[in-house]
Amino acid sequence: KDPLVSQLVNTLMRDGKKARAQRVILDSMKHLQKKTDSTNPYSILTEAIESASPLLKLTSTKKGSKVAHVPTPLRERQRHRRAIVWIIDAAAKRGEKTFEEKFAAEIYDVSQGVSAVLQKKLQLHKQALANRANAQV
Fold it and tell me: Which residue windows are transmembrane per the record (predicted)?
């Protein structure tokens, strides 16, 4: 029922196997609940996705013979999608046994502020800040 969780399930889904993606998320939430001793792991999930969501994206445009990177604001759904994809990619590179454990550990790290996903967001915001002069292009 939560639009953020359904977006997460749809992003995680491969080859139309939605029930499998839902089971992966459910198992991940169980692992996250054990890890944090929290009664509601979905609040941790939404908090982690919100904190990993970038505000801007950089689009490339040609300005004469040069390529200019223009910072462009993202809508809320686009922001969440970027954060979800980054978290899934970072979870896939982790060392735990199953993907459910990897995903839960990555969500936990994002909520604690020690994930590479947050570094990626910070790097993107720094680039956007450096290229803010191109915003009027």
Answer: none
Domain count, the chain: 1
Q: Look-up: residue for tokens 């692992």? A: 31
135 Cβ contact list (under 8 Å, min separation 6): 70, 71
Q: How far is CA 81 from CA 4, 35, 132, 137, in A?
A: 9, 25, 23, 26
Q: Which residues make Cβ contacts (< 8 Å) with residue 98, sequence separation at least 6? A: 27
pLDDT in tens, 101-122: 999 999 999 999 999 999 999 9
Domain span at residue 88 reads: 3-134
Q: What is the three-class DSSP state of 69?
A: strand
Element containing residue 60 per DSSP (H, E): strand 56-63
Residues contacting residue 78 through CB under 8 Å, at least 6 positions apart:
57
Domain of residue 7, CATH code:
1.10.455.10
Query: CB neighbours of 105 closer than 8 A, spacing ≥ 6?
Result: 31, 35, 91, 94, 96
